Amino acid sequence: MVARLLALMTVLVVAAPAGAAPSAEAWPRWTAHDPTSTATVDNRPWDAFLRAYLVAGADGVRRVAYGGVTAEDRAALDAYVDGLAAVPVSDLNRPEQRAYWINLYNALTVKVVLDHYPVDSIRDIDISPGLFADGPWGRKLVSVEGTAISLDDIEHRILRPLWRDPRLHYVLNCASVGCPDLPSRAVTADGTETLLDAAARRYINHSRGARVDGGRLVVSSIYDWFMEDFGGDDSAVIAHLRRYADPPLLARLDGIESIADDAYDWALNDAK
User: Fold this and answer.
1) Rounded to whole angstroms, how far apart are CA atoms 22 and 38?
2) 187-238 pLDDT, tens per residue?
3) Is 11 exposed, middle or buried (0-12, 13-18, 19+ CB in 10 A)?
4) What are the CA-CA distances from residue 174 to residues 24, 111, 135, 246, 251 (Å)?
5) Helix (H, G, I), strand (E, B) or coil at 148
6) How many whole angstroms separate alpha carbon 165 and alpha carbon 160?
7) Where are the domains of the chain?
8) 0.90 cut: is pTM over it?
9) In whole angstroms, what is the distance from residue 187 CA to residue 43 CA?
């Protein structure tokens, strides 16, 4: 009886809902890198896919035309992911590794949606292990250097703990309208810093990121789920918002000392 209860508890822990963000705990397996390496990853197939199927909406949200992806381009995306999986990532330098993991995360997310399309939300793709599985994030989707990797692994065991940069949240796309946009180009090592700042500014100054209604600050649920990444409390989150706020939002944030509410739209970022 005790063994069965312990097994059930393990399943429940593994199947944490998408809104309950896992803590950032580094996977030592992926700390290896070569600071002298000049090797780069070929991301041209990902660039081509994004140019063909990423659509900028009038509402300021970039969406993916999942329904229009041809069989040929599906195959090209699969080949790109396979190519990334074959990269000896431990031999890359740190900036190249960061770009590599961001691109792999985003390409895998698009691939898993296409593999199950049509769906109304990525949360409907319940392939993660666990009794109450929600979404695809816990499923091992690819093998890198002989090690099975999930989307959760990339985000919470590699990128977040190894780089400790809250701006990473702005370039990791979870295929939802409420999420920061999928970058319009593949991430490159030499362009990552500029991209991170631009993505932070783009999201924060859109109503999905932060808005002030009647003196009440409403933010994306990302700032609730990952509050520790943004400083640990309301004041730290607000300071982060102010750092990237354009003048109109900055003026509305004047005098705001706490977050009144958070919101998030899980609808698929589908450009139908």
Assistant:
1) 33
2) 999 999 999 999 999 999 999 999 999 999 999 999 999 999 999 999 999 9
3) middle
4) 17, 12, 10, 25, 30
5) strand
6) 7
7) 2-263
8) yes
9) 8
